[in-house]
Amino acid sequence: MAALNLYEKKRNFGSTPEPDATPAKSDGQKKLIFVVQRHDASRLHYDFRLEADGVLKSWAVPKGPSLNPADKRLAMMVEDHPITYATFEGEIPEGNYGAGTVEIWDSGTYTPLGDEPVSKQIEKGNLKVSLNGKKLRGEFALVRIKGKDKSGDPWLLIKHNDEYADPDAPTAADQDVDRPHVPKSKRRLSSPASRTVGASRPKGKDPFPTGVTPMLAQPAETIPKYGNWLYEIKWDGVRALCSVRNGKVDYESRNALTLTRQFPELAALPKHLRASDALLDGEIVMLDDEGRSDFQALQPRIMARMLHEKNPEKEWSKGRAATLALFDLLYVDGEDIRKRPLSYRKQRLQQLLKADATFRFSSHVEGDGEALLEVAKEKRLEGIVAKATASVYESRRSSSWLKIKIVQEQDCVICGYIGGKREAFGSLILGIYDNGKLIYAGNVGTGFSEREGARLRKLMDPFITKKAPFADPPRLPAANPVHWLKPKLVCRIKYSEWTSDGKLRAPVYLGLRDDVKPTDCVREEKAATQSMPDTKTVKDPPKNSPVEKEPRTEKPPRTKKPEPENNPQPQTEPTPTDLLALVTHPEKIYFPEDGITKGDVARYYYDVADVILPHLKDRPLSLKRYPGGINTKPFFQKHVRAGIPESMVAKGEDGEEYIVCNTREDLVVLANLGCIDQNPWMSRIGSLDSPDYILVDLDPFECAFTKVIEAAIEVRKILEKCGLRAFPKTTGGDGLHIFIPLNGNYTYDDARMFAEVLSLTAAQQKPALFTTGRAIASRQKDRVYFDYLQIGHGKTIASAYSLRAYPHAPVSMPLDWKELTPKLTPTTFTIKNARERIAKRGDCFADVLTLKQSLTKPLAVLRKMYEAGKA
C-alpha cells in the first residue's frame, strides 16, 4: 500500500515488534476507530491516530490531548500507520526508529463532522471529528497552522466547547503523574524483541525469583459484569512453573514437586524463547484428537512418579506427547514483571515465545467472555478463566482471576476404600476439609480401569490405618470390608452436583493429583471469599522499570437509565469480585510512607460501606482527586462530566446536576477516581438549603491536640446547658468536629448564626482556650480556633468514616464523649484499625441521622449566657 511506504521505510521489522505494513482486511464495521498512544521515546508525547482510507492518519501531540477548549495543543502530522497499529503496545528496542515504550492511552470510535470526507478535510487543513472514547469525548478540531516545511507539518488539536468540555479536567500529564518519563540514557533495554538466547543483560538486574507459588483462581458461577477482563480456556492438566536458566528448564508443580523427568518432551522450551532466563506459568496437558485437554491421559505419568518407578519418563513413549500451554510471564532476562499488569505480561510472553504444537501461547479474548463460554460448552471443555487485565501476579488464590466451570470437578482426599467385585477395591471413600476438619464427601466407584485400580491399590496400602480419619466417621454398608487410610492421597472427581447433606452426586474418578496438598481439598463453591480480596502492596517497584500500561477505562461513560418495566427484575448487588475489577492499577501507591495502595483504599470503603453510606446518601459531593497519591497535587471536581455513571448523578431542586454516592459500588468508583476522602454537603438533594446539622470545627492554632480535646469538652458543656445533644468525631487531620443535629427547619444562615454565637460564648467563658479571628493574623497563638465559617450552601466537610489524605491514612472517626481523653491523638484511628473498631462499636454517629432538634429554646438560652458574660 503506497500510503504506508514511508512507515515501512523507517522500520526494520526483524528487530521491532511493531506490526508490518500489511493492509488490514475490512471487518465490515461502519464506525471509524481512533486511538491515542502514550509514546515514551526520546521525548514523551502522545500519538493521536484516526482511521481514514484504510490507514491511521497520525499526529504527534507533545503535551497530549485536552478537554479544555482553551488548550490549543501542537500536533505534528507524521507518516500514516497501518490499521493494526491501533492495538499495538510494547517496547520498541534501542537502535530502532521511535525507540521507547508504546501504550494505549485512549481508544474508541469517531464520527467525521461536515459534508466532506476525512481525506478532503485533511487536504484542506481543517478536520472536525466527534470522538467516542473512554477519556476523550465530544467534538475536536485539527487545524493546520502553516504549510509543510523543513520543521514538519504542524497542526493544532483543539477541543470544541460542547457538553464534554471541561476546563478543570486533568491534563494527560496529570493523569500520568505516577508514571514519569524515563530518559533514553537511563532506560533499561527490556524489549524481548531485542534479545536472543545468550544476549547480554542490563546492569542492575532483578534477582531470579525463588520460592514462587502459582496464582490461583477463585470459583465463580457467572462472567464478571464490571471492569476490564480477558478470558482464556481453562486447561485440564498439571499446573507448572517453568524456570529457564542457562539453556535448561525445570518444571515445578504448585506444591513444589519436580515435574521435569516426567515430561522429557518439554525439555526443549529454552530453544523456543527469545530470552536467556525466564520464569513462566502454564499448564502441562495431554490433548486429544480434537484439541481438548484430557486429565486422565496424564495418569500414567503421575502414577509412575508416585510409585517411584525407576524410569517414569518411559511412560510418555506409550501414549501421546504432552503439550505446554503458557499463559503468564513472571520474569525475563533480569526483569521481575510480577507487579506489571497481566495484559502487559501476556504481551511480553507472546513476543518472546516461538510457539509450535508442543509449546503453545494460551490465547485469550477481551470483552466477550459469554461468547467464549458458549464455545467452551459447545466443545465440551472444562470451562474458562476470567482474569482482570490490570491484575498483578500474586502467589495466592485471588478474585482477580476467576474460574467459571462447565464440568463440575472437585479435588478430594482418599480416606479409605471398600472391597468389591474388582480385585483391587470396589470404591474409594472421599473427604474434604471444612474449617480445618476432614468431613465425609461420599464414595466413588467408577472411572478407573483394572490396571489403574491395581496401581492405585499399591499406592494406598502403605497408608492403611485402623482409625477413621474423619472427626465424625460415616456409617458405611457392612456388606464389604472397609479399609481406612491416612489422609495423604488426593484425587480429582467429576460430579453432577452436591446433595443437600453435603455428598457428591454421581461422582466419577478422573485421576490422582500429586500437585495438591490434602488440606487444600475444600468445597470449591465455598472457597470464594465474600469480602473484598486483598490487594498486593507494592512498596518498592522495580528500579527503572518501564512505565505501566494505562487502564483502558475507569468506568463506562454515562448512559441513560433504562425505563422501568411493568415487572422489573430484582437487582442484585455486584459481588466483591465485580467491584474489585473496577479498580485499575490497584497496586498504585497512595500513601508512600506506609505502602498503602489504591486497592487498599478501595477495599476500605467497600468494607465500611454499611456505616459510611447513610452519612453520604443523597448528599452532593465535591470530589478531591489524588491521581498520584497524597504526595502529589490533587484537583477538585464539583461538576458532573463524562465518566461519572448515571447512577451517581442526581438533579437538585435548583435544576443543577450533582454527584452523589449511594451504593457500595459508588464508593469503589470514587476510590478508583483517586478520591481518598469523601466530602459531602451538610444538606441533601430535596432540601439543599436546609442543613441536617450544625458543624463545629475545632482546629489547633499552634497548640497541642490536648487543648483541642479540652475545647470540645467545653463546647459540650455549653450545649448541654442549652438542652442540645452533640456528637464528636476526629477530623482525620489535627482537629475535632462536633455535629449538632437539626430538625430540617433551618437555613444555612440560621445554622451559621447559631454557631457564631456559640463560638463567641465559648471564647468569652474560656478566653485562654479559644480564638475566633477570621484572619490568621488576628488569631491568638496557643489557642483552639473555633471555625463556624464552614457552614454554608455548597460547602463540604470530611464525612464520618472517611479516610484523609495524610500520612498513615487516618480516619475521621465518630467518638463517644468519654473517649475524649489525653490518650486520643489525630492518628488514633487509621485504615489499619478502623474496621476492627467499627465491627465492635457499630456506628457511633447513628443518632446524627435520626435526632431532630429545634434551635428556638437553645438559642434563647445561649443568648442569655452570652449577654450575662458581657455584663
How can the largest sheet be summarized?
Answer: 8 strands, antiparallel, barrel
Radius of gyration, taken over Cα atoms and rounded to an integer in Å? 32 Å
The rounded distance between the terminal residues' Cα atoms is 95 Å
SS content category: alpha+beta
CATH topology of the largest domain: D-amino Acid Aminotransferase, Chain A, domain 1
Say which CATH homologous superfamily of the largest domain is assigned. Answer: DNA ligase/mRNA capping enzyme
Query: What is the general shape?
Result: flat
The CATH architecture of the largest domain: 2-Layer Sandwich
Helix share of residues?
A: 10-25%
Total tally of structural domains: 4
Strand order of the largest sheet: 1-2-3-4-9-8-7-6
What would the average pLDDT be, to the nearest integer?
83
User: How much strand?
Assistant: 25-35%
Protein architecture, described:
This protein is an alpha+beta fold and 871 residues long. It folds into 4 domains: 2-186, no CATH class; 216-405, 2-Layer Sandwich (D-amino Acid Aminotransferase, Chain A, domain 1), CATH 3.30.470.30; 409-526, Beta Barrel (OB fold (Dihydrolipoamide Acetyltransferase, E2P)), CATH 2.40.50; 693-870, DNA primase, PRIM domain. The chain is 17% helix and 27% strand. The strands form 9 sheets. The chain has an 8-stranded antiparallel beta barrel with strand order 1-2-3-4-9-8-7-6. β22 and β23 form a beta hairpin. The longest helix has 18 residues, at 748-765. The termini are far apart. 45% of the residues are buried. Mean pLDDT is 83; it is low at 177-203 and 526-572.
